[in-house]
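Hi team,

Below is the intake form for Urea ABC transporter ATP-binding protein UrtD from Thalassococcus arenae. Please confirm the fields before the structure is written into the shared record.

FORM ID: S-0412
PROTEIN: Urea ABC transporter ATP-binding protein UrtD
ORGANISM: Thalassococcus arenae
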Amino acid sequence: MSSLLEVSGVSVSFDGFKAINNLSFQIGARELRAVIGPNGAGKTTFMDIVTGKTRPDSGRVTYGTKAVSLLSMSESRIAQAGIGRKFQRPTVFEDQSVRANLTMALKGDRGPFAVLFSRTTRAQAERVADLAAEIGLSGTLDRKAGELSHGQKQWLEIGMLLAQDPQLLLVDEPAAGMTPAEREHTTDLLVEAAKTRAVVVVEHDMEFVRRLNCRVTVLHEGSVLAEGSIDHVTSNDKVIEVYLGR
Ligand SMILES: Nc1ncnc2c1ncn2[C@@H]1O[C@H](COP(=O)(O)OP(=O)(O)OP(=O)(O)O)[C@@H](O)[C@H]1O
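The structure came back. Fields below:
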């Protein structure tokens, strides 16, 4: 399988402390991957490097069929090239409807002004309806985003990212603060999204990771400690020692 993203031998230090240490990581074009590891393992820094927020001291990061280097690209160019990132806290426009939030997120630079004062084309309306169905918010399109539950806001934000049609989606702790039913829906949503793109999920909740039913990468001290199925990594002695506990 050819990789969509390839990180090779990447290191980065902050004030002499190696947060990422000779890290290598690959993900295929239609793959769901969970990234786990103890606090301070380097999960956030890894995503910061992929999205261009942090520049590594050494190593390579290449992306796409032409294997272009992301290291010389700005954060906004990396986003335009199809890498989307969902942070832990949802950042939807609370005063706008779910429909307006999704419409604004569609490709084509539709800011709030354009959405409020120009007509939405039929194609855009259909795309918004499809996205709402995909994230399970079809029944809430006319409600203000601020009225949604925490879980629904997270799904709306995932929908807004999907509206940009990213090839690689990085998602930080999507299950945090969700009810069991919301977690289940989130699992389905991420599994579905990964059928047409690569999705990396950073998550601490092991039950949630198990339900994703995907390959798992365990980070520790800025490197890959173990990688494989959930059963493979959770039976690894080193993983038990540094992360899961005995
Ligand atoms: N800008 C920075 N300056 C100094 N140290 C940093 C900086 N960013 C990260 N670090 C350090 O690098 C290490 C890795 O941090 P990172 O946030 O990537 O870990 P993490 O795996 O995401 O942890 P958590 O699960 O707690 O979110 C930590 O020891 C952290 O304190």
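SUMMARY LINE: The chain has a mean pLDDT of 93.

Thanks, M.
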